Amino acid sequence: MNGSVTAVCSDSEHAFSKPTRERITLLAGLGVEGDAHLGVTVQHRSRVAQDPTQPNLRQVHLIHEDLFTEVAAAGFAVRPGDLGENITTSGIDLLALPVGTLLHIGDTAVVEVTGLRNPCRQIDGFSDGLLKQVVGRDAKGEIVRKAGIMGIVRKGGAVRPGDAIRVKLPVGPHRPLERV
């Protein structure tokens, strides 16, 4: 299972959306250089309010490009960076990856998948009703989160649109992604 990067985004401010860039630089153990969520400890405001000493398992946010097509069918216009992701991907079913998957991106960067993004009400502030498109329930009544995955940077490097992503699954048994 391999894919590619379709867009990269970062923002030094704690804004909901992030502007697209020509490249971003991942820093080992920290996240995206210059991004508001860079750090060893959690940087998301709601998490900082709960416990600022928790480890930052959300250094890099990745979204699969297919989500934009899916929500467009329901009337929502979403482009790379609009939902705050750092890396938009194609060709990989991100939501099906297990915890601990390594994503080798470009020439040197490696991101370890830690879990699912837990979308919040801010998504409806971006576009009213969008939250219901990215969080729902399956036939069993279980919550399904579709707003991407989170990871930590194991090895740094530059990431650009068009870069290859090579997926390395962890040794089994695999643990399914949960919200982080």
UniProtKB/TrEMBL annotation:
Stretches assigned to the MOSC domain: 18-168
Annotated InterPro entries: MoCF_Sase_C (IPR005302), MOSC_domain (IPR052716), Pyrv_Knase-like_insert_dom_sf (IPR011037)
SUPFAM superfamilies linked to this entry: PK beta-barrel domain-like
Pfam families linked to this entry: MOSC
GO function terms (MF aspect): catalytic activity; molybdenum ion binding; pyridoxal phosphate binding
UniProt superkingdom: Bacteria
Gene3D superfamilies from the UniProt entry: PK beta-barrel domain-like (2.40.33.20)
Protein name per its UniProtKB record: MOSC domain-containing protein YiiM
Organism per entry: Streptomyces zagrosensis
